[in-house]
Amino acid sequence: HEPLSSLTSLISFCQRNAVVTLGYALTGFVVLTVFLALYYWYRRPKNYPPGPRGIPFLGVLPFLGNYAERTMHKWSKKYGPVMSVRMGRQDWVFLGDHETIRQALVNQGNSFSGRPLIATLDQITEGHGIVLLDYGDWWKRQRSFGFSTLRGFGVGKRSMEDRITEEVAYLNDAIRSHDGKAFDIKSILSNAVSNNISSIVMGRRFEYDDEHSKEIMARLAMWFNDPDTSFFLQILIFMPACVHLPHDKKNIFRVTARNNRRTQSLHTTKTTTENFIDAFLGEQNAENGTDAFTDKQLLHYVRDLFFAGSETSTTLRWTLLCLIHHPEQEKLRKEIFEVLGQEKIPAVDNKAYMPYTCAFMQEVYRYRTLAPFGVAHMTNEDVNLNGYSIPNGTTIYVNLWAVHNNPDVWDEPNKFKPERHLDDKGNFVQSNHVIPFSVGPRHCLGEQLARMEIFIYLVSLVQKFEF
Ligand code: HEM
């Protein structure tokens, strides 16, 4: 009953009439929710993938609660392997079985290989790097550069395998320094894995107590392991407007060259192509290379490699946990001793003679899906999948966890059983139903490196220690 002449008087009115204001706000929210639900229902194209799309934020909850892969799997039993779920302002399409995922990411790979623009993450990457680049010429150029560089730096140069075996020796020493007493292996495993990336990226490793390397590790750990940060980031992905709320932006988003002189010295001192940075600068100096191979792109690319590469240490930790909780440790050691003895340095070629070790690794990949939904994809054009129409620009998630836990393929999927990957004669059977690195043109760029790292680390650790 009062004239509300300005925003200030509106605010003071709301303060004085809190209950009435709350009532209006709740009614507004309900009306808006119903309106949006009807609007989206009306707007959907013909043959649109079915799914629980009535409630605007229904799909967000399982993500915030970290049980999304199981919920989506349960829902897709009802709605099918191509299912749309409402996520706040937009629908996401979830692909829920192996056949459908291959249909989309491999058979129609070019149409399904975009990345959605997530405003919050874009603040970090500024449209650079590799993991979140949208599909197009720039991504293709960066991807093929990364692919050929990671595959090795040509004949006569140090191979990836050498770099990994060198690091594993440091890791073994660090474990030995604990004199058989219990300790948390997490930080030194992260150091070792991060050194593999360092070695590839800049041709050097860091001591495990190096301050600069500790800072890098702390930042990477914050993304994955700090519950506050990961919860906050998830909220930001679903509700980008929250980025304007007060928070320690510097801590989360900072990615800058710490020392300009250091970056400049890269340009002046390098003459040979021994590592990723050299190779990148080589492209930069080549004719027409400057537009795609800028300093800024180098910085973000390197950040992405460290970030994505740290998945390996998580897999190794799961591997050790599986060793500890299951009686397979002795079987594994027996095979390793038969092939290598206690001293011989493991090499990837030994795989051919180690079927049980390969089966053990494949079972770890299956049993604990590292990235249950991989990384979000996006359609680049209107597409048809299993008879459903999916519009251009739709966010696509593939449920890799569901593939690894499909009871039609895996007997007792929630049990850890390496033997399931061996045939009657004890030979290892590679399964194309184990796809932790995803499939198609956008599959993990570091797959070969990660597989090599995990094999050599596992064999070397079991060869030298009992966990
Ligand atoms: C066990 C360890 C790893 C797992 C389980 C893993 C898994 C994945 C998955 C699921 C994706 C998303 C693929 C998609 O979009 O369909 C991915 C992307 C990627 N991974 Fe890995 N990854 C691992 C290790 C690594 C390592 C060591 C590196 C570093 C060299 C790396 C670099 C990348 C990059 C750069 C991408 C983005 C590729 C692109 O967008 O074109 N990953 N990874």
Automatic annotation (TrEMBL):
This is Uncharacterized protein. The keyword Heme applies. It comes from the Eukaryota. Pfam families: p450 (PF00067). Belongs to the cytochrome P450 family. PROSITE patterns: CYTOCHROME_P450. GO terms for cellular component: cytoplasm. Its cofactor is heme. GO terms for molecular function: heme binding; iron ion binding; oxidoreductase activity, acting on paired donors, with incorporation or reduction of molecular oxygen, reduced flavin or flavoprotein as one donor, and incorporation of one atom of oxygen; steroid hydroxylase activity. Heme binds at residue 444. One of its GO terms (biological process) is xenobiotic metabolic process. Keywords: Heme, Iron, Membrane, Metal-binding, Monooxygenase, Oxidoreductase, Transmembrane, Transmembrane helix. InterPro entries: Cyt_P450 (IPR001128), Cyt_P450_CS (IPR017972), Cyt_P450_E_grp-I (IPR002401), Cyt_P450_sf (IPR036396), Cytochrome_P450_fam2 (IPR050182). The chain crosses the membrane at residues 20-42. The keyword Secreted does not apply.
